[in-house]
Amino acid sequence: MFVISIGVNHKTAPVEIREKLSFSDNALPDALARLLNYPVVLGCVIISTCNRTEIYAHVTDVESGLETIRMFLQRKSGVEPALIKKYTYTSAQHKTARQLFRVAAGLDSMLLGETQILGQVRTAFQLAQKFQATDKVINTLFRHALTVGKRARTETGIDRHAVSISYAAVELAKKIFQDLTGRSVLIIGAGKMGELTARHLVANGVSGVIVSNRSYHQAAYLAGQFGGRAIKFKELPHYLKAADIVISCTAATHYVVRAPEVQKLLVHKPGKAIMFIDIAVPRDIDPEVGSLPGVKLYDIDDLQNVVDNNLMERKRAALLADAIIDDKVEEFARWQGEQYVVPTITALKKQGEAVKQQELDRALGKLGALSVHDRKVIETMANTIVSQLLHTPITKLKEFAMTGKGPVYQEAVERLFDLEDLEQAGRPAIPQPLQAKEQPKAAGRH
């Protein structure tokens, strides 16, 4: 048996190629069915996200499988075969397992450790199962991947550190207020960064949203996204006192929030903290604001420092996640190897059982009448002898299954015991031995 993968991502292909090779949700059932129509493909899953398209397949032959899937992609997309070969990356056997496990763990994403991809891998697998596109090998591969993805997050905490400016602001807000439930935010400026930060804050419990912008129409539009309220820019000083968190990101060339204004509003908020997040360059908020009692002021450099530190934490966690992946790749490779020798082991046990039963019947026939106890003792002895004789060759077959000597030992057992031709029983292809850890040919994306 062979598992292979072929894919494109934001690092290997431009957007005009990626969009042609992507699959919509509605197109996936037909695509899976078409893949299974090729005799070389025994099972498959298609993962298609905003930055990645990857096909994982169980095939009867590596080269034929890769060539078949390239042809499938060419017919689907209209992209020239030479360009598909140029922009796609491929893997086989344990490299395929490592590639998928890194994807599921978030180590192959545009944003290291991002969480969404694990759900996307799960959804792709479930869809393939629903349309009966998977088989035992693909099922085992993807179940290992989902386990790896979950363990990588729970055991390393790789996704617990904010690595975007907007979410870093949320992380700082949680340190100040602990619980953001019921807190209010004032957004100054209706730009994208302010909107993203507000969106993260609302997702974490902030309920009151006020938006102020020089264009009241834009303020009203953004406030409507959060069920909030828009105010005119000249009303800004009055509403500062209503906010626990103030986010400012305008294109102004001067301060839009000054220290004297904030000092006045603090009279109305005795003993209460207020957080200012200045994402603008040039800065919107007078740096003196940060020296006022009860005020926490963070500018874009502060947020970037949080992001940089958190990214280092994610990289450290990624090393731990790689160790988890190594273990699972070895476990899957061992399982693969055992599947190859299963027909030999089955035939060996069948032959042992046949010889045992034949000789047992002959011996019992010569002994004549026996008590139930004596008969059971003899049968147990015969079973034990056969089990002990076959234990060593079976154990050794499993041990050598994923080494270069695996096929040699398997063939030797079949010849020594004169087993039947097992090719007719649908023996899987000889698996490649597991090598030292190797990285995928190209990094992925989510």
UniProtKB/TrEMBL annotation:
Protein source organism: Sporotomaculum syntrophicum
PANTHER family: GLUTAMYL-TRNA REDUCTASE
Keywords: NADP, Oxidoreductase, Porphyrin biosynthesis
Function: Catalyzes the NADPH-dependent reduction of glutamyl-tRNA(Glu) to glutamate 1-semialdehyde (GSA).
Segments passing through the bilayer: none
UniProt-listed Enzyme Commission number(s): 1.2.1.70
Pathway where it operates: Porphyrin-containing compound metabolism; protoporphyrin-IX biosynthesis; 5-aminolevulinate from L-glutamyl-tRNA(Glu): step 1/2
Miscellaneous field: During catalysis, the active site Cys acts as a nucleophile attacking the alpha-carbonyl group of tRNA-bound glutamate with the formation of a thioester intermediate between enzyme and glutamate, and the concomitant release of tRNA(Glu). The thioester intermediate is finally reduced by direct hydride transfer from NADPH, to form the product GSA.
Protein origin, superkingdom: Bacteria
Binding residues annotated for substrate, in chain numbering: T49, C50, N51, R52, S109, E114, T115, Q116, Q120
Segments for region (Disordered): 425-446
Catalytic activity: (S)-4-amino-5-oxopentanoate + tRNA(Glu) + NADP(+) = L-glutamyl-tRNA(Glu) + NADPH + H(+)
NCBIfam families: hemA, PRK00045.1-3
Residue ranges occupied by any Glutamyl-tRNA reductase N-terminal domain in the UniProt entry: 6-156
Coiled coil: none
Subunit structure: Homodimer.
Pfam families per the UniProt record, alphabetical: GlutR_dimer, GlutR_N, Shikimate_DH
SUPFAM superfamilies cross-referenced by the UniProt entry: Glutamyl tRNA-reductase catalytic, N-terminal domain (SSF69742), Glutamyl tRNA-reductase dimerization domain (SSF69075), NAD(P)-binding Rossmann-fold domains (SSF51735)
Protein's UniProt name: Glutamyl-tRNA reductase
